[in-house]
Specification:
13 strands; 5-stranded mixed β-sheet; two-stranded antiparallel sheet; SH3 type barrels; 18% helix; alpha+beta
């Protein structure tokens, strides 16, 4: 059960699960009403005896050790730390709710080293089918805010990336996870089809 347990044990301590990394912490009864922090990742512990509704948790991969961390909503716009190796988790640009413009200069950092799975829309400005699915890509970015990084890559302006991944038709949707190209989808596909393909990464 996430959060604090209902009973204080015989030693006068309360076992509280960290909402960030899941570690169980022993907190003395004297500190229940004051602020306490997780002994592993340093996150604030919910020591208020009143039960609060659980915060939404987002899965963010540490790019140093590969561990998937559960980050509460209130930490997604700040820098959290990996519960395993302690590395900083950069989460400040994961909650924009809009597609992220990807270029050759940012591709490695924002796609291959992304702490979230990535859906990359490879488009061309002159492509009619690309314009058809553009509102759909915007919708998905908003719906998957903080869970999937949705990006857009102009293939005419970023030919090296287009060549590397053999993008010969637009629109092409590339799905990356942990720096690996997992799948590619070509054409103006319906929203339900894209959501089905991405369901395993949510």
């Amino acid at each position: 059960m996430q959060g604090e347990q209902s009973n204080i044990n015989q030693s006068g301590t309360l076992i509280i699960r960290c909402p960030g990394c899941g570690t169980r912490n022993r907190v003395s009864a004297a500190k229940i009403q004051s602020g306490s922090r997780c002994g592993k990742c340093g996150a604030s512990l919910p020591t208020n005896r009143e039960k609060k509704p659980p915060s939404a948790l987002y899965k963010v991969r540490c790019m140093e050790c590969g561990t998937k961390n559960r980050i509460p909503t209130d930490k997604m716009r700040s820098t959290a730390r990996c519960g395993k190796c302690g590395a900083a988790l950069s989460t400040e640009d994961l909650m924009s709710g809009h597609p992220l413009i990807i270029t050759e200069e940012t591709f490695d950092r924002k796609v291959l080293k992304s702490p979230l799975p990535v859906l990359l829309d490879c488009f061309a400005p002159w492509c009619g089918a690309c314009r058809i699915i553009d509102p759909l890509i915007e919708e998905l970015a908003a719906e998957w805010n903080g869970r999937i990084r949705v990006g857009k890559l102009n293939v005419d302006e970023n030919k090296r990336i287009a060549s590397k991944f053999q993008i010969s038709a637009t629109p092409t949707l590339l799905i990356f996870d942990n720096g690996i190209l997992k799948e590619r989808l070509t054409g103006a596909l319906p929203k339900q089809h894209i959501m089905q393909k991405m369901s395993g990464y949510l």
